[in-house]
Every structure is written in C-alpha cells, then in structure tokens.
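Human: If only I could read backbone structure tokens as easily as an amino acid sequence. Underneath my words sits a plain record pairing an amino acid chain with its backbone structure tokens. Take your time, and here it is.
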Amino acid sequence: MSEEKIFPSPLKSNEFSLLERVSILLLVVFTVVILVGVSAWPQFFWDGFLEPIIWEPITRDADVGDAGYTFQNTFIFIAVLFAFVISISAIFRVADIPSGGRMLVAFLPWVTWAPVIRVLEDSHFFQGDIRVIFISPIIHFHIALWVVFAIMLGRSAKQMKEYWVNVTGELDNEDSSGDILRVGMLCTLLVMFFVLLLPSFNAHDDLGSFGVALGAMLAVICGVVSLEATKEWDEVERSVFSIGMAAVAMFLGLWLQFKLTPWHTSGDAAFWPALVVLGVPAIIVYILWDKAKVATGVLESENMSAGVLPPHVSMKQHDEGDWEGKDIMERWAPMALVGSPWAITIAFGQLCDGIATWIGIDVFGYSEKHPLSAWVIEQGVALTGSVGAWLFFIVKATLVGLLLWVFSQVRIEHRQQHLRLLIVLALLVVGLAPGLRDLGRLLLGV
C-alpha cells in the first residue's frame, strides 16, 4: 500500500511569489534607470532612445493625428504592460481589493471612458499640452491614476464605516459609507470638469454649452444612481463603478456637443455600424452565457467558483494529486468558464475590435496604425486585390476561439484571482477599447 503524497500548501495571500517579486523589481529598476539615465546621460537615454521611440510618436499623434506604432515601441509597451499586470495584481491581493465578477463590472466604465475621451482627442477637442495624456499609452496610465483614487476613496469609506461600528457598536445610517462615497464622487467630478474639460472648452470659439451642461447633469445622476443600485457591493466596487459611470456620462455630453456645434471638420456620420459592431458580439456572448448556465449552477451548488481551486489546494496538488471536489470541477468548469463574465467580456471586446476595424477600413477607408495588424490587412489586400481588413476580423475571431479554449482549460489557485482580473482588463484595453474608439469615430464622422 503506497503512502499518500503530501503537497505543499499554496502561498498565503499576503506573500509575493517569485514572479511577482521579479516583476516589481524590474519595474522599479526600469524606472530608476530611466530617471537617472535621462538626468545623467540625456543624449543616450532621451535623444537616442525615449524621444524617437516613445515620445515623438505620442506628440506627433497629438499634433497631426494617428502617428502609428513601431515594432520597437509596441514591444516595450507590451513588456511594461505585462510587468504591470503581474505587479498590480499582487499589490491588489495584499491590499485585499475585491477580485470577483462585480469588480470586473466596476472596471468596465473605465475601459469605456478611454475610447470616449480618445475620440474627443481625435476630434481635436483638447488643447495645449494636456493633449498628450489622452494619447496611447499615456492615456491608460492617466486613467489608472483616477482608478487608484477611486479605490482609495472606497477603502477609506469602508475603514471609516468599520471604525464607527467598532466605536459605537451600531450604524446611525444604513448606508453611511454611501454618504462618504457620494461626496467623494461629486468632488471627483468637479476636478475632472475643471481640470480636463473646462480649459479646452474655453479654448474653442463659438462653442455651445448644451451638450456640456447635459453631460455634467447626467454625470451626477449616473453617479448617484450607480451608488444607490450597488448598496450590496463592497465599498471599493461601488466607488470605482460609480465614478467610472459618471465620467463616461460627462464626456459623452461632449460627443453630443460635437454633433450640435462641431469644432473640427467632420465627415458623414454613420450609425448603422453600431448595430453590427455591438450587436453581433452581444448575440455571441449571450449564447455562450446561456450555454454555461447549467454548469455554473452545478458548481455554485457545491460552493465552487469555475476554475478557481479552494484556498487550501495548490496547482501542484491539482495537477498531480487529488482533492475533494476535483471530479466535479473538471467536469463542469470548462463549460462554466466559457460563459463566465471573464470569458464573455474578452470575447465581446475582441470581436468588437475585429468588426469595427473591418468596417472602418474596408467600408469607410480608415487606416491601421499597429504594425502587426497592418501586416495582416496587407495580406488580405494581396489575396483579394482590393480590401483586406476582412482577414483581420477572421484572425480576431480565430483568436477569440483560441482564448476561450485556453480559458476553459486554465485552473488558478485561490490567491491568483486578482491576476485573472488584471489579465482580463489588459485584454479589454487592447481589444474592447480600440473597437469602441473605431466605432466612436464612425458615429461622429471624425
């Protein structure tokens, strides 16, 4: 009779893995080297590296429009993004930031806000030096700062609520943390309005204010309603979601203002692409979600989350050993994962990008700025002799199928849920956000 194999316990949530420590160290070293290098050897670090590869494309994009990417800066951006995903996910876990499906929903308005303000930059709304913070990749770091502030606001509201309960033993208000969040949300909107919106608005001559005023009012309404509708959520989730929804509403008001009093030459707007770009992916992800309902229900009845191992089970034990509930997980998790919020948001985002690019280039004559995507489109043109973005859509659809299959097979330790959240967000940033930007440009004729 063989002895039962003993497996090491997973790392504790407050411990960093080797990969996490290496990622954090690399980001710190990279930042220090760049800062010291630019100060001590500007001709090498700035004139020969940062300015031509990173900074010039950003400023040229702000001045004359899409400047395009190169393989060099694309590689740098991907490497930095990868390191940030690992590092931030570890910090979120140690800080006990929520990592469930509601947190993913809370982040979605911010993913949407990026293309909303990026389309405004395409229309030359923003004036002066502030324009560069709305150009990729700086726009994502800029938005990340707002998200971090929203997280800190939510944590502060939660801590104040817990402190009051510990001192008094009761709450004098059923939603005392909501009061703090409402004040914080309104103050954040004021800062956004006066810092990001008003200076550029004043720089334009003869620009009406109806859309701007309507957007400001809708921002307050959306923020308050979002907080009211999410009373059962964690304070961090409520803060991130409500401020994000309010920010989107405020700047969508500028889209309306552009239609009423354009501040830049625009072409013919097209509204039918929205039905295709949003409708087709919506139908597909609904089918995936519907197919997964039974599997999801079975796992929930066993107190399991699809693809997430129990806190006491390590990946090594799952792969090489056994644990109570493993058979149920392996039977039902693949289908449940394909229709999970994590998978369907990835599928929706990538399909949106593929369809928007296809329509924008082959129908409306836009161009592609990413070198790899442009190469794929060139192969499509070579095959047909005319249009080629259809091939980009096929590649995207194939990628979606591959991602869904990989997602259905992946199992993660309980402590890795924050990493999953950040990976999904990164895929939305490079998928859904560009797709919505393309759609926004078509809707405004920019």
The two ends are 74 Å apart (CA to CA). The mean pLDDT is 89. Residues 285 and 377 are 26 Å apart (CA to CA).
